[in-house]
Design brief:
It is built from 15 helices and two strands. It has helices spanning 28-40, 47-56, 58-65, 71-91, 96-111, 123-135, 141-166, 173-183, 186-190, 201-204, 207-234, 242-250, 254-276, 284-310, 319-325, and strands at 8-10, 327-329. The longest helix is centred in the middle third of the chain and has 28 residues, at 207-234. This is Terpenoid synthase.
Length: 351
């Protein structure tokens, strides 16, 4: 296991040789301003906490991940990042039964976006309702259904994660991947790329497409866990992190877990490229849409990695330097903070 005297560690170069470049939506600044104003209208946090949140720039993540969307649908992608964040903040340290209540609240709001939320309800339900009320205006019925189904699986997985936390249950590596593929939120995050499309279910369920999507999701979760580990271990939230899982199961220290992650990541990178080269030829009437959608799925690998360092979410103002030199100084452990409510200080976001 990790030595208590370890002062620093090196992030592996997980995307060395990755063939897909960084892209960004040209509407980033304009749509960011609109989505930011919408989220600020909830007055969820005080000025200092709101500023800390803004520096994480989840709008940048959306704009890096959805480079081909028009302004209206990029707005859906940006607002979705807000919903993810708020749900994450309410559930990160909550007990399983409470997280179940939050999950049911969000799903009820998404399924009934034109119905006012109950008086006195926490802002989570209204954020979800307003997000989806606007999103459905530019989403095909196929995309709407796919999103609701995917977000249901996501919220259910977050409940399962909370129950693990209640029981201090550390999963095996294989068990962890099975739940983390959903708690990472990748599946609903792929849907904005098809909001204007009507891709048949049998294409999304095609074995090669399923394989490619899972490979990409696994890469995203590895990179996320790699970059978030220092923050999480300092706040006592590291049980749901692949590095912790690997250290426990393989009885290695942090450096050993990092070596494991680097090797697994390289295998996944190679598998993604091979799978892209073996995709079927689609019917002409859907070919362009499917090709754009799958390019967007694969694009999440680079966009997620870029955002990890370009935002201040995990490395503060040192992100771009850290991306180059790869060295991370271990933060001292401290007591975790509780979930925020309206007007309360935001749970720590950055270093």
């Amino acid at each position: 296991m990790q030595s208590p005297t370890q002062a620093s560690y090196r992030l592996p170069e997980t995307l060395a040789g990755w063939p897909w470049p960084r892209m960004i939506n040209p509407h980033y600044e304009e749509v960011k301003a609109e989505s930011r104003a919408w989220f600020h209208s909830f007055r969820a946090f005080g000025p200092k906490s709101q500023d800390a949140f803004d520096k994480c720039d989840f709008w940048l993540l959306a704009s890096l991940s959805y480079p081909f969307l028009d302004k209206a649908r990029l707005r859906t992608g940006c607002d979705l990042m807000m919903l993810f964040f708020v749900f994450d903040e309410y559930t990160d340290l909550s007990h399983g039964d409470d997280v179940r209540v939050y999950a049911d609240m969000v799903m009820d709001a998404l399924r009934n976006p034109h119905t006012p939320r109950p008086a006195g309800e926490i802002l989570l339900g209204e954020v979800a309702r307003q997000f989806w009320e606007l999103a459905v205006k530019t989403a095909t019925p196929t995309a709407q259904k796919r999103f609701i189904d995917a977000f249901t699986r996501y919220t259910d997985s977050v409940v399962a994660e909370a129950r693990d936390r209640d029981e201090t249950h550390v999963r095996s590596i294989d068990e962890y991947f099975k739940i983390r593929r959903f708690t990472i939120g990748a599946e609903p995050s792929y849907v904005p790329m098809e909001l204007a499309m009507d891709i048949p279910d049998d294409v999304i369920a095609h074995p090669t497409v399923v394989k490619l999507t899972q490979l990409v999701t696994d890469v995203i979760l590895l990179d996320n866990d790699l970059c978030s580990y220092n923050k999480e271990q300092a706040n006592g939230e590291e049980l749901h992190n692949i590095l912790t899982i690997v250290m426990a199961e393989l009885k290695v220290d942090l450096n050993g877990a990092l070596d494991w992650l680097e090797k697994r990541h390289a295998e996944l990178n190679e598998a993604i490229i091979e799978t892209c080269n073996s995709l079927p030829v689609w019917n002409e009437d859907i070919r362009d849409d499917v090709d754009e959608y799958l390019l967007g799925v694969v694009g999440w690998v680079r966009s997620n990695d870029s955002w990890n360092f370009e935002s201040q979410r995990y490395f503060g103002t040192d992100g771009l330097d850290t991306q180059k030199h790869r060295m991370v100084t271990m933060r001292p452990k401290k007591a975790g903070l509780g979930c925020p409510v309206e007007g309360d200080p935001l749970q720590e976001l950055m270093v």
